[in-house]
C-alpha cells in the first residue's frame, strides 16, 4: 500500500484512531554459535515477543518477554532493529505494533517453553 501525505505522523495518528492498538516488543536473539532463537506456537515458528506492561519501557518488555517465553537468561540488547505493524480484523480491528531488538545471550542452560502462552518448543537454529 502506498500512502501519500504531507504530515506522516498526523496521518498515521488519524488512521490509528480506527483501531485498538496493542504494543509489543521482542527479540531476534543470537548465541555464540550464531544461531537464532525461535519459539513454536500455533503450528508456526516465530520470534519471542509480548505485550508491554504498565510502567515498562519497550526495552524492558523485550527482555522480559524473551526470558519468560523461552526460559533464557543473560540477555543483552545490542540494538533496535525495526517496528512492524500487524493488522487483525476479527472481533475488533486491531493493530499490533511490535518493536524488535537484536539481542545476544551466552546462556547454555535448558530452554523452557512458556506453555501457558501456547509455546510448545524453544530452540536455537542456524
How would you explain this protein's 3D organization?
The structure is a single chain. With 126 residues, the chain is of the alpha+beta class. The protein has helices at residues 8-16, 58-70, and strands spanning 20-30, 36-41, 44-46, 49-51, 75-88, 94-105, 119-125. The mean pLDDT is 95.
Quick structural summary:
The protein has 126 residues and is of the alpha+beta class. It has 2 helices and 7 strands, in the order H-E-E-E-E-H-E-E-E. The protein has one domain (22-125): Nucleoside Triphosphate Pyrophosphohydrolase (Alpha-Beta Complex).
Shape: globular
Structural class: alpha+beta
- Number of domain modules: 1
Distance, first to last CA: 33 Å
Helix share of residues?
10-25%
What's the helix count?
A: 2
How is the biggest beta sheet arranged? 4 strands, mixed
Overall pLDDT level = 95
Query: What integer value in Å does the Rg equal?
Result: 16 Å
User: How many DSSP-defined strands?
Assistant: 7
CATH class: Alpha Beta
- Fourth-tier CATH superfamily name: Nucleoside Triphosphate Pyrophosphohydrolase
Order of helices and strands: HEEEEHEEE
Give the amount of beta strand, in percent.
35-45%
Q: Which fold does the CATH topology refer to?
A: Nucleoside Triphosphate Pyrophosphohydrolase
User: Going across the major beta sheet, what is the strand order?
Assistant: 4-1-6-5
